[in-house]
Amino acid sequence: MSEYTAKRKASHILYRRKHPPVKSVIIPAIREHNGLYAMMVRLRWVCPQCDKPRGERFDTLSYDGSRRLGVHGWRNACGHVDKYDCVRQEARENGLN
Ligand SMILES: [Zn+2]
């Protein structure tokens, strides 16, 4: 790798750290969603605990104890679990929604 390429790559990694990709996901709007209350939010696609990339979105069902609701889920490779309660809080505060 040339020095130029190495520098470009390093600056790209730094840029990515400062400006992580943003993704839209559908999550339950409240814990007891009654099978109805979903919302779409924009999130920086990095784990809030360790800053590593979040996992791929997939379609899943959230069960609130009585009804199912179609939402997105993801599994982070770092092992930290994003709880919907925390994700709602993050979405309120991240300046993207
Ligand atoms: Zn993590």
Structure overview:
- The structure is a single chain.
- The protein is of the alpha+beta class and 97 residues long.
- The chain is built from two helices and four strands; from the N terminus they run H-E-E-E-E-H.
- The protein has helices spanning 3-18, 84-93, and strands spanning 22-28, 38-44, 57-63, 68-74.
- It is elongated.
- It starts with a helix and ends with a helix.
- 8% of the residues are buried.
- The structure holds zinc ion (ZN).
- Zinc ion binds at residues 47, 49-50, 52, 76, 78, 80.
Mean pLDDT: 94
* Structural class assignment: alpha+beta
The fraction of residues in strands falls at 25-35%
Structurally, the number of domains stands at: 1
Order of helices and strands: HEEEEH
Rg (C-alpha, Å): 17 Å
Care to give the gist of this entry?
The protein is built from two helices and four strands; from the N terminus they run H-E-E-E-E-H. The chain is of the alpha+beta class and about 100 residues long. The protein has one domain (about 20-95).
Which key terms come to mind for this protein?
single chain; 97 residues; alpha+beta; two-stranded antiparallel sheet; 2 helices; 27% helix; elongated; binds zinc ion
Topology:
Layout lengths: L2 H16 L3 E7 L9 E7 L12 E7 L4 E7 L9 H10 L4
Antiparallel strand pairs: 1-2, 3-4
Bound molecules: zinc ion.
